[in-house]
Amino acid sequence: MGTLNNWQQINAIDAHTGGEPLRIFTSGIPPIPGDTILAKRRYAQENLDWLRTATMWEPRGHADMYGALLVEPDLPGADLAVLFMHNEGYSTMCGHAIIALGRYAVDQGLVPPGKDVTHVNIECPCGLVRAEVTMRDGKAADVSFESVPSFLYARDQTLTLAGCGEISFDIAYGGAFYALADCSQFGLEFGRDPVAGFVDAADRLTRAAQQAVQLTHPDADDLAYLYGTILTDGKDAFSDQPTRNVCVFADRQVDRSPTGSGVTARLAAMHARGQIGRGRERVFESIVGSRFSGAVASETTCGEHPAITARVSGRAFYSGKAEFLVEADDPLAGGFLVR
Length: 339
Prior knowledge:
Layout: E1 7-17, E2 20-27, H1 37-47, H2 49-56, E3 67-71, E4 80-85, E5 90-91, H3 95-107, E6 117-124, E7 127-136, E8 139-146, E9 151-161, E10 165-173, E11 177-182, H4 195-212, E12 226-232, E13 243-249, E14 253-254, H5 260-272, E15 282-285, E16 291-302, E17 305-314, E18 316-327
Parallel strand pairs: 2-3, 4-6, 11-12, 13-15
Antiparallel strand pairs: 1-2, 1-18, 3-4, 4-5, 6-7, 7-8, 8-17, 9-10, 10-11, 12-13, 13-14, 15-16, 16-17
């Protein structure tokens, strides 16, 4: 793990998408070498983890903070590249961050603005994600992105969890792997039960599934891990009514948004089950009531897996600017979590 020299000043712009925070670092970040984005991700994990914990954890953050670390892209056509950070480590994809970064890239002049639409190509650890920023009166507004190829990996899996009995779930990939399960199997109902019950149930399923299901990904071994669990209202078949879900990922971290990569994973599973056709738009609602719209944009393959790309849309808002100071002789310089 890397260490501080004396003290570090780190500047950031904070935003949120559907209530889910994003801390975008603008200066004070050490160079991050690597020939590929996955190599940069490994370098950050092994050498700069103090930066993640100091800015995501208390006293500068909290257990559910999320960060975006901009790095040099290596894919042709990429306008920028990003590493995603959270309370436990480094994700491979984050849709709410893509929506915020699409707006940020236009507002900060990282890409030249178009008249009606501005295209922003963002390299993520999972691959190139193409964002489309709607312009209103010359300013960035709503943002959509088309995902990397996404697929249903394991269908109708079952595990017996103590106190819950047999739980049925799918595992789907939307830039990251998720277990997908109907919350009613745990005796839970959206709008009735506290969030803590969803967190406990989702975390138990994630940990059990991590042990029970071996994951692989055609592109890279670094992508083959179960990121979390999405508990749904069970309304997977296409309807004009919104479907609600909550994503619990990393170390029991709760996404306040509908989860962009999670919406993508759900669409991949729905499409594989014949529950939604190409181009049919569905609304996905989060635990706090915020909404993303999503649709199957194209049909494709990913290795041996029949796959889709998803189009997910939402809007991000700025919430503040910060100048953080991290003193090396502070015994709590690296941050801490209290739950």
